[in-house]
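Lay summary. Proteins are chains of building blocks that fold into shapes, and those shapes determine what they do. In this project we predict the shape from the chain. Here is one chain we studied, written as its sequence of building blocks.
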Amino acid sequence: MVLAIGSFSCLAIGSAAAAVNNPTPTSGQTVTVDTSPPNPDTTGVHAVAGSTNVTVNILQGAQISVANNNAIVIGDQSQISNQGAITNTANLTFDGIDFGSNNTITNSGTITTSGFQSEGMFSTGSNNFVLNDTGGTITTNGGNSVY
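And here is the predicted shape, written in a compact code that computers can read:
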């Protein structure tokens, strides 16, 4: 019985120890980034190629900080709401948020990039609704970078 309790405790700790609850969502899934350890999360969120209707919510106080990839990538017909902090410290061409077509992106937190041609938000598609809302800041520090 003690062994079962120990196993249960280990599983409970493992399931709670992630700021990003699903780093590779598929169609129709919702991702929540919260302040649970590790915060900042260093993996990011990368929706599976071809997925649609993915929702990503970065909660207030939550942080994603990546160095060698885009911080968040979604495809088409999806939504992102950032109330936390997204940071990309890569030297070259990696973005804070990268998205396809027909998406809704709302930033009321912070997005910061530092690499050459690293945008805060970058779309490979069209027909997107993008809002840098009240309190939202986007800072790009690399050459040829825009937000």
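What the prediction tells us: The chain is about 10% helix and 30% strand.
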